[in-house]
Amino acid sequence: MTHTTEAPVYGYDDLRRLMSLMTGDEKHGPAALSTLDALWVLYDRVLRVSPGAADAPGRDRFLLSKGHGPMAYYAVLASRGFFGEELLPGFGSYDSPLGHHPDRLLVPGVEIGSGSLGHGLPLAVGSVLGLRAQGLTGPRVWVLTGDAELDEGSNHEAIAYAGPAGLEQLHTVVIDNASATYARPGGIAARFEAAGWSAWTVDGTDHEALHGAFAAPHPGQPHAVIARVASKH
Prior knowledge:
Shape: globular
Number of helices: 7
Number of domains: 1
CATH architecture: 3-Layer(aba) Sandwich
CATH topology: Rossmann fold
Helix content: 25-40%
Distance between the termini: 32 Å
Strand content: 5-15%
Radius of gyration: 16 Å
Strand order of the largest sheet: 1-2-3-5-4
Mean pLDDT: 89
Number of strands: 5
Largest sheet: 5 strands, parallel
C-alpha cells in the first residue's frame, strides 16, 4: 500500500510524552490509551492525508466517533505536524482549541465534531455517499468507534445500510475493550459480516496485525477491523 502522508515529526515512542503534556480534569486518559495504537498505525502507515493537503478533495477522511477521549488523537495529530505540541498543555482550558471533544472548526486535521456516541459511523456512511456523488471513488473514509458505542441504534442502521449498498470506501475500526452492555452472538465481527461487511479481529496493540487488517482487500464491501484491547476503559 502506498500513501502520501509526510514523514513523521515524531515517532511512536514520543506519543506518551505528548499525551503527558495534557493535564487537567476529565481527560478520559484510559479511553484515549485504548485507541493510541490503532490511531498511530492509521496515520503512520495507512491514511493518505497530510497537513499540507488537509483540505484536498482526494484525501482520505478519518472520523473519530469515540470523541470523548481525544488525548491520543491530539497526540497523533501533533506528531504528524497538523499543529504544534505547544498547544497540548492547554488541553481542555477555556481558550484552547483542544477541547474535551474535538471541534473540526478549531483543530487542524479534524473532520467532524464528535463526542456524542453513535454519530460517527452514520456520518461516515454519508461521507462516502457524498464522495460517490462527486465522482470521487479514490478517497477512503475511516471511522473509529468503541464497542459500547455499537449499542447505539444509529450505528446498527449504518451497518445494515452500508453492506448491501456496497460502500467499499467505508472502513470502521472498533476498539473492543469488553465494555459493551449487550453481548453479540459470534462476537462483534459476526454482526458486521451478517450485514455484508468484510471483518477482521486483531490484537489492538499489535502494529503489524493492525496494519495487515487495515490493508486487507475487500472488493465491493465495507470493511471493519475489531481491535481488541485488554481492559475496560
